[in-house]
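Side project, low priority. Logging it here so it doesn't get lost.
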Amino acid sequence: MNSFHKNRLQPALIRPMVLGLLCLLAPFFFGGHPWCALAQGIDIPAVHLNLDGAKGPEQVSGALQIVFLLTVISLAPALLILMTSFTRFAVVFSFLRTALGTQQAPPNQVLIGLSLFLTFFVMKPVWQKIDRQALTPYQQHTISTEEFINRGTAPLKDFMLRQTGEQDLALFVSMSSNTRPKNAESLSIWTVIPAFVISELKKAFQIGFMLYIPFIIVDMVVASILLSMGMMMLPPVMVSLPFKLMLFIMVDGWSLLIGSLVKSFH
């Protein structure tokens, strides 16, 4: 009986699909049909692919700028994660969720979105400085591409240097084959980036350790009470979760944590 109904329903589903496909293909095969009056008024742009040699240095420069722009767009996620405050926010929020023991609450999309908007908030002065010193003059054709890159990376480099520990900088300076710089400002940005990432991970793990302490104490107290009552078959995590949530809410944990994280970048 199920197969009979299935065979009877298939033509009913196929007929609208065939009619829709014919309507879409009609403008190409039946150009004079009244149904195609609307389609004839739409102009389809032509695409030309030119593989001839460049006629001047301006065409070569334009092609190189397009290649550079595509490269930057492909590296944008890595730049956003590793060269901004995003790493610290994301790692700390992940530690918080694990310490609370709430499994998938808040979900990853919420934590990543919150980390992203907090990153925009923290990095706004840096991006405004980049726009004022590099992007606007470059759009006005007052500086070259090389100077645009140097001016654009300078504010970002200063931000990373303020958040990077001396030991992390010394580690990558000692591993690099370049000559020892006179000061931190003369370091290459390729040396500053990995040192900044390590410093961010170190600070995020330190904050995560501090977050774990009060919740571990709650787990230990609940486990001791359950053990003394002889309720060994009841998971302590199930009982301690409401108390940890209550503790986090009573101290206004989100405001306290986010405020401390944002202030740590100033």
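Brief comment: Residues 88-263 form one domain.
Revisit when time allows.
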